[in-house]
Each structure stands twice: as structure tokens, then as C-alpha cells.
């Protein structure tokens, strides 16, 4: 899949992008033009904007990199010339001059002028990026060790949301709609960063931070927690999913649909295993106990951060365990990630079908989660957290229970 | 070499050690052994000192010794330490019958006077050279005097200054602080640029400033601090039925949270003049309900725009708010009473989601029927 | 230990009128001073700034190796996706300690080594102002560094990153004692830095040779002076932050605990108000070194000496106003971000001035590319690259994309390795004959330089690409899913960086090989480089008392002007060598000072230093140990304070005859 077709930026922007890419590397590495075959760059490429906020940053950083590159080339050329021209070839001892003040002052003012030229657009971009009054939709993200919770407050924006939607790892938003991401954290500082949509924003406990996001076209945008947050910092990933308006409505409707107990026997057994083993932390909306009372999970009493992912409609997401693992097999994952924009919504909304389920890693996770992802869950080491684990503890599930649970989780769509 | 006194002390030490050992081996009980060990140590120390000073053994026919013997030197000069020691003792006794701090002050003065007296007395007999004796005194006493004295001076200045600052009103504090700072700066500049100014002028200025500071500190300290208004928040005050009371003021210990709240407000709720509650968040308008994240501290600012003192209360249904708290009735948290036009912060950390209780969570204002705002916790 | 003094010798009896007072000459009550001139005692208890400087350097090099090995582990782990060399926990400790070791235990002490050794020589002094304090700062640093590294064996090192952001540094999130070791270790080494800063500031301001005005002070001493002022003001800030953290972790304080109403950003502000000046503390001494090296090997004075001095001072001032550029993603609000963004650009100006001046120093010169000169030139080139990548993220919006990615890692390694470390190596090759009296081998030196420079660019160059492709820092693994394909894919460049790091390690190793190879070199000539500043008027290595007589200074580059005379007429210049270094030294010896006052060695600095880690272990493990440590500290402080100003003659070994050396009348100083 060629990335230039998969990301149709307007023709001019695309040209600017490829020219700038060469120049920025020339500037950064100082190796001159590295002409390269343009294969697919990493999904977190910082020079590949897909929304207006990232584009504003791009419009600023491309010229800055070019200027830095030019200054670098000139400076290094002069140094190179001096090294070559004035090496000791037996010339006389040069004049013992202590400098020429006029030249000095001139060479001081020159970089100052260049920097003033950089400073003016910088300041205006800083203020332009801080502008979020035009947003039409609010999505809350909350970081904790080591996953992101995404919730949609009840609102008129986002096409109207009548009851709160809670999901994790992936944020779904309507395409071409300015969205206000309001974020905070439940424990340490995390950082929300979707490079193709906007710069990063630290999510600080006790503070509510905002980040405007808007995607130009449907697709999946990769991100990664970028503020060091402890043991599994490297595994704390997230994705933004941009959907066309009608696809987004469909997604929303599904997230608010009624819970139905599974009908097949294995999954039904899984439901009771889930209630017994999982539901004290993991919420599944609509799940009821034997008396018909709703089961309310209490992660605030069982996990140090006070939260665990809400697993309602788990199979509408593509990842689990803080987006560390894919719920999809590699082939099915590639189908979604490489889908052209006009087919993307359809493929994403298919969710995780039984054929596509990444059973291997899901089972490994259920079998021994601390072995699959570094976390603080060893009961012997929890004295400092009042005995509460940070992450999903080892549950000692039997293989039969795991079979049941996998069957049950597959029904959560 | 070994004079009578030394022989006596060596003997006494040896005897006391033997007695200690014998007693310790043969007798039960700890106190006696401890006492004898102490006696042995004390005797050994005295013996050591005596040995070291050669028992002050000066022969009258030793011409050299006469010259070097401290006793042959003129009498030492006057000393203030006995006076200080006596003042300390007097204060201590007064303290015994009045207040404890006075006793402590007296004790400290007495100890300081005694220590200085000891050092001086010892130094004056260290050698026949008064210059040398002065140096010896400085070398042994200064390493103790300077740190303690410096700490005491800094402490007195800081404490007096803080009393004055806490006594002044909030506005005057700024003025006085600026003026005093400017005066110190001006004086410093003056002395720096006039190095020949008389020492007495400098000392006089410093003394006047010092006395004024301490006097001000005493006066204002006695008069007490200004009224410090604490903008309190409240949580878990529900059991007393406080949150439905439109009148009673109740302070909360977590007043400091207002500091953080200024930087990190999740939402602002205003009680309008018409008796309605409206909320304000950054970002586009949501629905009429307010959504807060689950099990995470969220700061909500309450702004009272009505014409009476009011408080903001939150009703959290009938579920138990804390797992082991036995709460009858409804679980509620609230701010303290906020005067008209006032602002207060409440920090909410809510574990269970709002749809886990009948009727959900809501904000209300006691005494204002129309004030209602739904609170959603997903 | 009694503290009693009295007369020992007795004057003639004066029968009446009072005998003349006798001043005692023998003192009791303090330990006989460790006056040995050989053996381990001559090092452990020395107050000689040269020995202290050498020990600073040796210990710093040991920590350089430790930090380098940690770096190699990091690169090995990241060579492949889903690396398995280290566990997540071990990796977190590794990068925390790599940064901490390199910054606090290698670069800063190495700069202190040069400052200690060279400043008194460059200003024509016999020692620093407070020799015993100098020993104190050395040993405090050594014990602090050892203390910090013992955490590896006592339950794990700190794992919160060298920036140790709250609240991740709190006990629930970092339950091992690692963070406590880190906090206390840095407090201890902070004492070393503060004491050293005070000492060197006083030395430079008060102990310059006659004629040496501030504008004749050699440029290295100038830059070191600015560095000491930065230390003097920066260390208290980090100390405050560390004490808050210490109390939060050990005594239930809640300075950074959100649930109690605190704001974790407080830590970030405190840390970076220290942390940014720290950058200049790291690079300015290296700038000073190459500002000495470049003129010598260009046979020209430093171009625009006053501009270099003032730009150094300007960096020292403006460096305080840019700390929040480390926090552009923290949500400070657009006004703060804009202000700090512009301030950060402003500091690029004085930094640029330095690069321009170095280039113009070489312009029109007579360049000899010795190893020292190669390292100095390498610094200019590498630092230019690092400086320009710095400008790209002084642009705050751009920084929100780049901060906490490998692009930043690349940037600051070009600044710190390319700026500071190359400069320190230039200094080692330049001053090695001064310090040890032997030249380092030039062929091995050139191999050392080229391997290091290639290794460095292979290690840190690719990190620009890795970072711009979105790989964050401090991740113990990276995943194939986020690596991309084609020329810029993360897999290839991560592997290149790892290979580069091993080449770099080989390059560093070659330095040690060179030291070994050169150990039997013949004595170096008095002035091997045809140098320009005052330290070359002393012998190689200098005598304990540095100069035969205190030199009188007539010009900047005093040594050059004593060697060369301009015989050109009018505007024409023609420099003729009128004296060799040997002749200049002989002239000084002929007029040597009859009496030289030198400080006596002392036990107390090392004892006092030793008490600090004891107290620190006590804070972590047992109050009893704190009391023991405090007792040691008290004894040491009083022993120090009570040490008499004049050490007894009887404490020295019998004089070895005149032997042509000036008599040493030893006078203790502070």
C-alpha cells in the first residue's frame, strides 16, 4: 500500500511535505540530501499532518527546519573552509588581533534577526493552537497506569449523546468535526499524543487539560503515551479512529445498545465466570446478578488508580490491555489499518469477528496478565498501595475458564 | 609526678571499679550496678583531668613555673556570665510557679551562662599569656557560639517579623513589606557607598532596627493574628445533616485544596439570582447535566450570585459512600456556607457510577427549591 | 581528645613586675597532621588543589565508564523490537542512572577536576582560597557517588528518570528505595558542588596574580567562574526540590500529592529552574577549554575575548529565564509558552556568538591539528548541529511534536556529548603533559578522536530520524507495529544507533589504551604546544607550590607575550621568538620567593564527608545510623574548627636539608 494514495493530502501540501522531508533531514543530520525511496513512514511520523492542528504545526516547523538546515550548512561550510584554508603550511605567525568589534556586533545581530523572524510566527501559532472555542464535541480522556479511558459526556455535541459512553484505548470521533479533548489523570502524569492530529499534551492529575483534535479523513491515527509513567510506559498506546458522520452515528448507537445475555452455552458459562472473577473491577453495562440487580463494578475499591477498563462492547475496539495488544489477528489488523478512507468506516465497524480474534494473546493475557505486561500486581509488593494492585493481577484461571471467558468476551459487541 | 591528690583519685577509681564488678556479680538488681558504673566513670574522668593538669603541682622554688603559672598572673577581668547565670536561675524559679515557657527560657539562659562561665574560667587559667588565653577561649567557644547564636538571631528576627506580618491586614502587609525591603536596600546601599561612615552609626542603626523589630514582634504577638478567612471545602460532612442546612457555617480542614483548584477546575457551578444552577466548563456547551470522571478527584467551583449566603450540596443517593461507613439516610457532601458573591471549591471523588443509584446524583442548594443540576458519573 | 594548650618552653625568671607573657608553641588536643608526601595518606588527606583535581578526574572517569556501560545496556535493549535484554524495571533504572551518572558524576566532576587543577595555575595562585573545603568537596562528591550507586545492590536503583517527575516518584509508584538513594545521593553531591563553587569563586576573585585584571583572566577560568556562579544559584533550587521529595517519601509530607490539594507541576518548575542552568553548568567549562585550545593551535589570540566573556556571562543570566521550555506540553497556557519560547530563542544568540568567535579565531590562523585541536574542532561542528536542532524545538508548537521523543535525545546528546564531553577530551589531551609530565600518544589520540566522532554520529544522528518518526523516549521496548517501512523505518535506525554506541564505546576505550600506551613516554618538554597562558610558566608537572615566584601579569596571553616579540614596524607584524619556556622558567627560579606559605593536610574533610552517606543510609534504614553519622559529623566539624592555625614544626619529618628548594613555612588556612 502506497502511503501517498492512502493519505490523500491536497496536491500542494503533498509536494511541500516531500521537499521538506528531505530538507529537514539535511538539517537534522547534516548529511546533505538523503534521497530516499518514499515507502510507508512510521504511523507516528511527526511530519505527516492529518488535521488542521497538526497542519498548523507543520506549517511552522517545516520552514524552521529549512532555516536551521541552511544556517547549519553555511556554518559548517565556513568551518570546513577554515580548516582547509588555514591549516599549518608553514605560514608566518598571524597577527595577534583580539577581534574586530564591528564584525562582532554584526555577527551578533545577524542570528538575532533570524531568530526574530522565527519568533513572530511561533508566537502567533502558539495562540492559534490554543484556540478551541470552535469545538463541537467533547470527549474526556483519563490516563492511568497503563491505559487510557475515553468517555463521552452527555451532550448535544457529537450529534447528541444521551447517556455516557465509556471505552478505552481507542477514541472514536467524527471526521471533519473539531473535537475538544479534555484530559486528566488518575495517578501519575501521562501524555496524550496523536502526532498526525496535534502535538502532545500532558495529562496531569488534578488538572483538566484540553487538546483540540480534528481529523480530515476517516482512518486510524496512532499515538503513544509520551510522559514517562512507570513500568509499562512503553506499552501505553492509544489510537484515534475517525469515522464519517453516519458511521459515527452507527458506532454511537451500538455503544448505547441494550445488553443481551449470550445464548450459546459456553459464553453463558463465561458470563458467570466473568461475574465471579472480573466484574468487581470491569464494568459491563447491563450485566445483572441473580436477583436482577445491576452489577456495579468497584475498581475504586480494588485497583490503586481507581479505574479499570469498561468492557461493554469490547469487540467494537481493536485493542486491549492499554492498546498494548491487538484484538485482531495481524491479517485482519492490516485490513483495518491499510483500508482506504472510503472503506475504512465499514471495516472498522465490523469489529472483531470470531475469525479475526487474536486468541493467542488474549488467552495469554487471561492466563497470566502480569507476565504479558509489566505491572505491579505481586501481592507481596503492595504494602505501599494499601494492598491494591496497579494493573490486572494474576487470577489463576483454569484453561476451561479461559475458554469460557473468550467465548463470552466475543459476545460483547 | 604522682601527687597526693592523684594517688587518692587513682585509688578511688580502682576501688570503685572493683566494687562495681563485685556488686554486679553478686547482687541482683540493676540500679545499684548502674550507680556504681556511673561513679566509676566519673572518678575515672576526674582522675584523667587531674593527671593531665599535673594536679596543679607547682613547686614554689621552680622559678620557671612561677612565670608560667596562671596563678602568678594578674587577676582576670570582669565577667558578665555570673550575672547571666543568676538571671537564668531566677527566671527558672519564677517559671516554676508561673508558666512553663518561662521555666524553659530560664533554663536555657542558665545553661548558656554556665557554659560561657566555664569556658572563660578555664581559658583564663590555661596559660600565663592573656593573649594566648583569649585565643584559646575563642577557639573552643566560637564553634559553639556562632552557630547557636546565629540560629537564635535568625529565629528571633523571623519570628518577630512573622508576628508583625500576621498582625497587619492583607493590604498593609504588602505595603509594609515593600517599605521595609526598600529601607533595608537603601541602608545597605548607603553603607556600601560610604565605607568610612562611623562604626557607631552603623551599630546604632542596626540596634534601633533590631529593637524595633523585637518590640513590634512582642506587641503584635500578644495582640494576636488578623482574622484569616479560610475558603474551605467540605466532603464527608453529610452525616451531621449539614448539607441540607441553609444556615449553619461549617469549616473544613482541607482548605488548602483551593490552591490547586485555581489551576485545575473541572467545572464551575453558579447559583443565579433567579435561584437556578448553571454550570460552565471549558469547551462547547454540553447538555444540562454535568459529567465528572469516576473515582478521580475533580474540583468544582461554586459561585454564589444570589443575594443570600448559600452552600452547594451534592446528593449521592442512598448507597454507602465509603465501604465501611455506616451512613443512614442520604449520602451528601457540600461546601461550607458561601457569602453572597463568594466563591468556594469542592473536591469530589466519586467511586460508583451515577446510574448505580435510584434517581442518580444531583447538585442542590439547601433553601432554594429551584436549584437543581444533574451529575452524571459514567 | 583534650583541647588544652600551654607553654612548653620556659623563659628566664623575672622576679618582679610580672614576667613577660609566654605564648605557647606546642599545641595539644588535635591529631598530628598527616603530612606524608607519598603513599595513600598523601592523597586521602591532601589539600593540594592539583592532587584533588587529579582525584576528581580519576573518579569522574570511573563513573564515565559506569554510565557508559549503562548506556550500552540501553542500546542493546533497543536494538531490536520487543527487546529482552533487560526487564522493564531494570531498563527504567538503567536510563535513570545513566543520565544521573553522566550529568552529576561524570561531566560535572570532570569539569570540577579541570577547574580545580587549572584555575590556581591560570591565575598565578599557590592553591585555592579554602584548601580544606576543597578536599571536603572532593570527598563529599566521591562518597555521594558511591552511595548513589550502592542502590544497585540494595534493592534497585531509582526508576523515575533523571527528571524524577512527581507524582511518579512517590512511594506508591516507586516502592523500592531507589528514589531515596537518588534524592539523598544528589543532596550529598549537591553539597560538594556548592562548597566547590564558593571556593572557586573566592579564589578567582581574590587570588589572582598581580596585574591580572578580570579582563586578563584566561578564558577557561572565566567560563569556570560563570559556571560556579550558576552552581551557586542552581544547587539551592534542586536542594529545595529534593528535600520536599525526601520529606514526602520518608516523613509523610504531601507536597506533590494531588489528593491533598497539591499540584505536581510544582516539582517540574523547581526541577527545571535548576535543570536548565545545569545545561550551561555542563557545557560552559568545555567551552572554556576549547577557547584555550583553539588559540594555541591557531597561533592567534581568541577572537573577541570580551565578547566570549560577556556571552558566557549572558548565558549565565538568560539561562535562568528559559526553564519552562522543558514544559511546553504541560499545559502552562499560551502566554507562558510564548514568552518562554521567545526567551529560549534569545539564548541562542550568545551561544551563536561563541561558535562565530571560535570560527573567527581559526580564520587566518596557523592551524596545527593535534588531537586536542581535533577534539576542539569536533566540538564546534557537533555543537553547531546540536544547537540548531535546539532552535527547532525552541519553537513551542514544533516542540509539542518533538518533546519526549528521540529527537530530543539526539539534540541533547549532540549538545552534551558533542559540546561538553568532546571539550573535556580536548582538555585532557591538551593538559595531560601539564598534569602528568608526559605527552599522550598522538597516533592513538587521533584514532581515539575519529572512532569517537564516528561512533557518536552513528549513535545520536539516527536518533533524529527515530524521534521525528515518533518514537518516544524512555520506552523499554518499541514495537514493529509502530516502526513503519522504507528508508526511515525505526528498525534499521535503532540498529544503526546501537552499532554506533558500541563504536563510541570502543572510541572511549582507546583513550584508556592511550593512557596505558603513553605511561612510559619520556618527560614532556616545558611547553609542548607553544601555549599562551600562565599555567605553562610552571613546571610539568607543577611543584606543590606551583610557581617559583608569584608571576606578574602584563597582558592577556601572558606566556605568549613573554615568548614572542612583535618586531614589525607600523601596521606590519612580525613575531619573533625571544625566549623559550625553559628560559622563562629559569628566570622565575632565579628570583624565587624565599618563603612560601602552604596549607597543611588534614584528616577532617574526609571524615566529615564520610559522615554524610552514613546519615543518608540512616534516613533510609535506621535512625540509629543517623545518630552515628551526626556524631561523626560533629566530631569532624569541631576537630576541623579546633585545628590550630599553625601546624607544629615537630609534626613534619626532619627537614631534608635545603636541597635548593625554598623553605616551606606551613600555614594552615581555612
Task: Explain the overall architecture.
- The complex is a heterotrimer of chains A (413), B (378) and C (670).
- Helices cover 38% and strands 14% of the residues of chain A.
- Chain A contains 12 helices and 12 strands.
- In chain A, strands 3-2-1-5-8 form a 5-stranded mixed sheet, with no helix packed on it. In chain A, strands 4-10-9 form a 3-stranded mixed sheet. A two-stranded antiparallel sheet of chain A has the order 6-7.
- Chain B has 378 residues and is α+β, with helices and mostly antiparallel strands.
- In chain B, helix 4 packs antiparallel against helix 5, helix 5 runs antiparallel to helix 6 and helix 6 packs across helix 8.
- Chain C is mainly alpha-helical.
- Chain C starts with 40 loop residues before the first helix and ends with a strand.
- The N terminus and C terminus of chain C are likely disordered.
- Chains in contact: A-B, A-C, B-C.
- The interface between A and C is large, with 107 and 113 residues.
| Radius of gyration from the alpha-carbon trace of chain C, in angstroms | 27 Å
Shape of chain C: globular
Strand content of chain C: under 5%
| N-to-C span of chain B | 93 Å
The number of E-state strands of chain B comes to 9
State the share of residues found in helices of chain C, binned by percent. 55-70%
Name a few traits of the molecule:
heterotrimer; A: 413 residues; alpha+beta; 5-stranded mixed β-sheet; 3-stranded mixed β-sheet; 12 helices; 12 strands; 14% strand; disordered N terminus; B: 378 residues; 4-stranded mixed β-sheet; 9 helices
Quick structural overview:
Chain B is of the alpha+beta class and 378 residues long. In chain B, 50% of the residues lie in helices and 12% in strands. In chain B, the strands form two sheets. In chain B, strands 3-9-8-5-6 form a five-stranded mixed β-sheet, with no helix packed on it.
Task: Give the topology.
The complex is a heterotrimer of chains A (413), B (378) and C (670).
Chain A: H1 3-6, H2 11-29, H3 52-85, H4 101-130, E1 137-144, E2 147-152, E3 165-168, E4 170-174, E5 179-185, E6 190-192, E7 201-203, E8 209-213, E9 219-224, E10 237-243, H5 245-255, H6 265-277, H7 299-302, E11 319-320, E12 325-326, H8 330-337, H9 341-349, H10 359-367, H11 369-372, H12 399-411
Parallel strand pairs in A: 1-5, 4-10
Antiparallel strand pairs in A: 1-2, 2-3, 5-8, 6-7, 9-10, 11-12
Helix pairs in contact in A: 2-3, 3-4, 6-12, 10-12
Chain B: H1 4-26, H2 30-52, H3 63-68, H4 81-97, H5 100-124, H6 130-167, H7 170-193, H8 199-223, H9 257-263, E1 267-271, E2 277-280, E3 290-291, E4 298-304, E5 313-315, E6 332-334, E7 343-348, E8 361-365, E9 368-376
Chain C: H1 41-44, H2 49-78, H3 88-122, H4 131-150, H5 178-206, H6 219-250, H7 265-298, H8 305-318, H9 334-362, H10 371-394, H11 396-402, H12 406-436, H13 442-468, H14 490-517, H15 558-563, E1 564-566, E2 575-577, H16 581-590, E3 595-598, H17 604-621, H18 623-642, E4 663-666
Parallel strand pairs in C: 3-4
Antiparallel strand pairs in C: 1-2
Helix pairs in contact in C: 2-3, 2-4, 2-14, 3-4, 3-5, 3-7, 3-12, 4-5, 4-17, 5-6, 5-17, 6-7, 6-8, 7-9, 7-10, 7-12, 8-9, 9-10, 10-12, 10-13, 12-13, 13-14, 17-18
Amino acid at each position: 500500500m502506497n502511503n501517498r494514495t492512502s493519505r490523500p493530502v491536497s496536491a500542494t501540501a503533498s509536494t511541500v511535505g516531500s521537499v521538506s522531508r528531505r530538507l529537514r533531514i539535511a538539517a537534522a543530520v547534516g548529511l546533505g540530501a538523503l534521497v530516499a525511496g518514499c515507502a510507508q513512514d512510521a504511523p507516528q511520523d511527526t511530519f505527516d499532518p492529518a488535521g488542521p492542528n497538526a497542519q498548523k504545526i507543520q506549517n511552522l516547523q517545516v520552514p524552521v527546519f529549512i532555516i536551521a538546515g541552511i544556517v547549519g550548512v553555511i556554518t559548517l561550510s565556513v568551518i570546513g573552509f577554515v580548516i582547509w584554508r588555514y591549516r599549518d603550511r608553514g605560514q608566518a605567525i598571524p597577527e595577534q588581533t583580539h577581534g574586530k568589534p564591528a564584525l562582532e556586533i554584526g555577527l551578533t545581530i545577524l542570528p538575532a534577526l533570524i531568530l526574530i523572524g522565527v519568533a513572530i510566527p511561533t508566537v502567533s501559532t502558539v495562540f492559534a493552537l490554543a484556540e478551541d472555542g470552535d469545538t463541537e464535541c467533547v470527549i474526556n480522556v483519563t490516563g492511568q497506569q497503563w491505559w487510557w479511558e475515553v468517555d463521552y459526556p452527555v451532550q448535544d455535541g457529537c450529534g447528541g449523546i444521551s447517556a455516557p459512553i465509556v471505552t478505552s484505548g481507542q477514541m472514536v470521533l467524527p471526521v471533519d468535526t473539531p473535537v475538544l479533548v479534555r484530559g486528566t489523570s488518575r495517578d501519575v502524569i501521562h501524555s496524550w499524543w496523536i502526532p498526525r492530529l496535534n502535538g502532545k499534551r500532558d495529562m496531569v492529575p488534578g488538572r483538566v487539560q484540553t487538546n483540540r483534535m480534528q481529523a480530515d479523513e476517516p482512518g486510524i491515527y496512532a499515538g503513544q503515551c509520551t510522559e514517562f509513567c512507570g513500568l509499562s510506559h512503553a506499552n501505553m498506546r492509544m489510537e484515534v479512529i475517525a469515522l464519517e458522520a453516519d458511521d459515527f452515528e452507527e458506532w454511537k448507537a451500538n455503544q448505547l445498545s441494550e445488553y443481551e445475555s449470550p445464548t450459546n452455552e459456553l459464553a453463558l458459562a463465561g458470563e458467570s465466570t466473568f461475574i465471579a472473577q472480573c466484574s468487581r473491577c470491569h464494568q459491563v453495562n447491563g450485566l445483572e446478578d441473580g436477583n436482577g440487580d445491576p452489577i456495579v463494578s468497584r475498581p475504586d475499591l480494588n485497583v490503586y488508580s481507581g479505574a479499570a477498563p469498561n468492557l461493554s462492547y469490547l469487540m467494537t475496539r481493536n485493542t486491549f490491555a492499554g492498546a498494548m495488544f491487538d484484538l485482531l489477528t495481524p491479517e485482519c489488523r492490516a485490513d483495518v489499518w491499510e483500508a482506504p478512507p472510503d472503506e475504512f468506516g465499514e471495516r472498522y465497524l465490523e469489529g472483531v469477528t470470531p475469525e479475526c480474534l487474536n486468541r493467542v494473546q488474549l488467552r495469554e493475557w487471561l492466563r497470566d496478565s502480569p507476565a504479558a505486561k509489566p505491572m505491579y500486581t505481586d501481592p507481596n509488593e503492595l504494602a505501599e498501595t494499601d494492598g491494591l494492585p496497579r494493573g490486572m493481577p494474576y487470577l489463576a484461571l483454569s484453561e476451561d475458564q479461559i475458554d469460557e471467558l473468550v467465548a463470552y468476551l466475543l459476545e460483547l459487541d | 609526678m604522682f601527687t597526693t591528690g592523684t594517688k587518692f583519685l587513682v585509688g578511688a577509681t580502682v576501688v570503685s571499679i572493683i566494687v562495681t564488678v563485685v556488686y554486679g556479680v553478686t547482687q541482683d538488681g540493676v540500679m545499684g550496678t548502674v550507680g556504681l558504673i556511673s561513679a566509676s566513670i566519673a572518678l575515672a574522668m576526674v582522675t584523667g583531668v587531674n593527671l593531665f593538669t599535673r594536679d596543679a603541682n607547682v613547686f614554689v622554688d621552680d622559678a620557671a613555673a612561677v612565670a608560667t603559672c596562671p596563678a602568678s598572673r594578674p587577676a582576670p577581668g570582669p565577667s558578665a556570665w555570673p550575672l547571666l547565670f543568676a538571671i537564668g536561675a531566677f527566671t527558672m524559679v519564677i517559671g516554676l510557679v508561673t508558666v512553663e515557657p518561662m521555666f524553659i527560657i530560664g533554663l536555657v539562659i542558665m545553661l548558656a551562662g554556665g557554659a560561657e562561665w566555664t569556658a572563660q574560667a578555664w581559658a583564663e587559667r590555661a596559660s600565663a599569656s592573656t593573649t594566648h588565653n583569649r585565643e584559646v577561649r575563642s577557639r573552643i567557644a566560637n564553634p559553639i557560639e556562632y552557630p547557636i547564636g546565629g540560629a537564635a538571631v535568625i529565629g528571633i528576627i523571623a519570628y518577630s517579623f512573622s508576628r508583625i506580618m500576621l498582625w497587619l491586614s492583607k493590604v498593609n502587609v504588602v505595603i509594609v513589606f515593600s517599605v521595609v525591603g526598600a529601607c533595608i536596600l537603601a541602608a545597605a546601599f548607603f553603607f556600601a557607598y560610604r565605607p568610612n561612615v562611623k562604626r557607631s552609626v552603623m551599630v546604632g542603626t542596626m540596634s534601633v532596627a533590631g529593637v524595633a523589630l523585637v518590640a513590634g514582634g512582642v506587641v503584635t504577638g500578644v495582640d494576636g493574628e488578623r482574622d484569616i478567612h479560610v475558603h474551605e471545602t467540605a466532603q464527608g460532612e453529610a452525616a451531621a445533616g449539614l448539607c441540607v442546612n441553609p444556615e449553619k457555617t461549617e469549616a473544613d480542614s482541607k482548605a488548602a485544596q483551593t490552591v490547586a483548584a485555581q489551576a485545575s477546575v473541572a467545572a464551575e457551578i453558579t447559583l443565579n439570582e433567579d435561584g437556578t444552577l448553571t454550570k460552565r466548563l471549558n469547551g462547547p456547551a454540553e447538555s444540562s447535566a454535568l459529567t465528572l470522571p469516576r473515582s478521580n478527584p475533580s474540583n468544582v467551583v461554586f459561585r454564589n450570585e444570589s443575594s443570600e449566603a448559600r452552600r452547594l450540596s451534592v446528593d449521592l443517593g442512598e448507597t454507602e459512600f465509603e465501604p465501611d461507613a455506616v451512613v443512614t439516610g442520604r449520602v451528601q457532601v457540600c461546601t461550607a456556607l458561601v457569602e453572597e458573591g463568594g466563591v468556594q471549591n469542592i473536591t469530589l471523588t466519586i467511586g460508583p457510577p451515577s446510574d448505580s443509584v435510584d434517581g442518580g446524583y444531583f447538585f442542590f442548594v439547601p433553601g432554594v427549591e429551584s436549584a437543581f443540576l444533574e451529575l452524571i458519573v459514567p | 581528645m583534650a583541647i588544652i594548650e600551654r607553654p612548653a618552653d620556659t623563659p628566664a625568671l623575672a622576679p618582679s613586675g610580672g614576667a613577660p607573657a609566654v605564648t605557647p608553641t606546642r599545641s595539644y588536643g588535635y591529631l598530628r597532621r598527616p603530612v606524608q608526601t607519598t603513599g595513600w595518606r598523601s592523597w586521602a588527606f591532601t589539600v593540594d588543589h592539583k592532587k584533588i583535581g587529579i582525584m576528581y578526574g580519576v573518579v569522574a572517569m570511573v563513573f564515565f565508564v559506569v554510565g557508559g556501560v549503562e548506556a550500552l545496556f540501553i542500546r542493546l535493549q533497543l536494538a531490536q523490537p520487543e527487546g529482552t535484554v533487560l526487564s522493564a524495571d531494570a531498563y527504567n533504572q538503567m536510563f535513570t542512572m545513566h543520565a544521573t551518572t553522566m550529568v552529576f558524576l561524570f561531566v560535572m566532576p570532570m569539569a570540577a577536576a579541570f577547574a580545580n587543577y587549572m584555575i590556581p595555575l591560570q591565575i598565578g595562585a599557590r592553591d585555592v582560597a579554602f584548601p580544606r573545603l576543597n578536599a571536603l568537596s572532593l570527598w563529599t562528591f566521591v562518597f555521594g557517588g558511591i552511595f548513589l550507586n550502592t542502590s544497585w545492590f540494595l534493592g534497585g536503583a531509582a526508576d523515575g528518570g533523571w527528571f524524577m517527575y512527581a507524582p511518579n516518584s512517590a512511594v506508591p509508584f516507586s516502592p523500592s528505595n531507589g528514589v531515596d538513594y537518588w534524592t539523598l545521593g544528589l543532596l550529598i553531591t549537591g553539597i560538594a558542588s556548592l562548597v566547590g563553587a564558593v571556593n572557586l569563586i573566592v579564589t578567582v576573585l581574590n587570588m589572582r596574580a598581580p596585574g591580572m585584571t578580570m579582563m586578563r583572566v584566561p578564558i577557561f577560568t572565566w567560563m569556570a567562574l560563570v559556571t560556579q556562579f550558576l552552581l551557586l544559584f542552581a544547587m539551592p533550587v534542586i536542594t529545595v526540590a529534593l528535600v520536599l521529595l525526601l520529606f514526602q517519601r520518608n516523613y509523610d509530607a504531601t507536597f506533590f500529592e494531588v489528593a491533598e490539594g497539591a499540584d505536581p507541576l510544582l516539582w517540574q518548575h523547581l526541577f527545571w529552574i535548576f535543570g536548565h542552568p545545569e545545561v550551561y553548568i555542563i557545557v560552559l567549562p568545555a567551552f572554556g577549554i576549547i577557547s584555550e585550545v583553539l588559540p594555541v593551535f591557531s597561533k592567534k589570540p581568541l577572537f573577541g575575548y570580551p565578547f566570549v566573556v560577556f556571552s558566557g556571562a549572558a548565558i549565565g543570566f538568560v539561562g535562568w529565564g528559559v526553564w519552562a521550555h522543558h514544559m511546553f506540553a504541560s499545559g502552562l497556557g499560551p502566554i507562558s509558552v510564548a514568552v518562554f519560547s521567545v526567551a529560549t530563542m534569545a539564548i541562542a544568540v550568545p551561544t551563536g556568538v561563541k561558535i562565530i568567535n571560535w570560527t573567527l579565531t581559526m580564520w587566518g590562523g596557523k592551524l596545527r591539528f593535534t588531537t586536542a585541536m581535533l577534539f576542539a574542532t569536533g566540538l564546534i561542528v557537533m555543537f553547531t548541529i546540536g544547537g540548531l536542532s535546539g532552535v527547532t524545538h525552541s519553537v513551542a508548537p514544533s516542540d509539542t511534536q518533538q518533546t519526549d521523543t528521540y529527537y530530543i535525545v539526539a539534540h541533547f546528546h549532540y549538545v552534551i556529548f558533542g559540546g561538553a564531553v568532546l571539550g573535556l577530551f580536548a582538555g585532557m589531551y591538551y593538559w595531560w603533559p601539564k598534569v602528568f609530565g608526559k605527552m599522550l600518544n598522538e597516533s592513538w589520540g587521533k584514532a581515539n578522536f575519529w572512532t569517537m566522532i564516528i561512533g557518536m554520529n552513528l549513535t545520536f544522528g539516527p536518533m533524529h530520524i527515530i524521534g521525528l518518526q515518533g518514537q518516544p523516549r524512555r520506552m523499554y521496548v518499541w514495537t514493529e507495529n509502530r516502526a513503519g517501512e522504507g528508508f526511515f523505518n525505526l528498525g534499521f535506525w535503532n540498529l544503526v544507533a546501537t552499532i554506533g554506541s558500541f563504536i563510541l564505546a570502543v572510541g572511549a576505550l582507546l583513550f584508556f589504551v592511550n593512557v596505558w600506551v603513553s605511561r612510559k613516554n619520556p618527560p614532556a618538554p616545558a611547553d609542548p604546544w607553544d601555549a599562551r597562558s600562565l599555567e605553562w610558566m610552571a613546571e610539568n608537572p607543577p611543584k606543590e607550590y606551583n610557581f617559583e615566584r608569584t608571576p606578574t601579569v602584563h597582558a592577556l596571553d601572558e606566556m605568549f607575550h613573554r615568548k614572542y616579540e612583535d618586531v614589525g614596524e607600523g601596521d606590519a607584524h612580525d613575531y619573533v621568538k625571544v625566549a623559550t619556556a625553559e628560559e622563562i622558567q629559569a628566570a622565575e627560579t632565579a628570583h624565587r620567593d624565599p618563603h612560601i606559605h602552604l596549607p597543611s593536610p588534614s584528616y577532617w574533610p574526609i571524615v566529615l564527608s564520610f559522615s554524610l552517606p552514613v546519615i543518608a543510609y540512616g534516613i533510609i534504614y535506621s535512625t540509629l545510623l543517623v545518630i552515628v553519622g551526626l556524631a561523626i559529623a560533629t566530631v569532624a566539624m569541631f576537630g576541623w574548627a579546633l585545628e590550630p592555625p599553625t601546624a607544629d614544626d615537630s609534626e613534619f619529618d626532619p627537614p631534608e636539608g635545603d636541597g635548593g628548594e625554598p623553605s616551606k613555612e606551613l600555614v594552615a588556612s581555612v
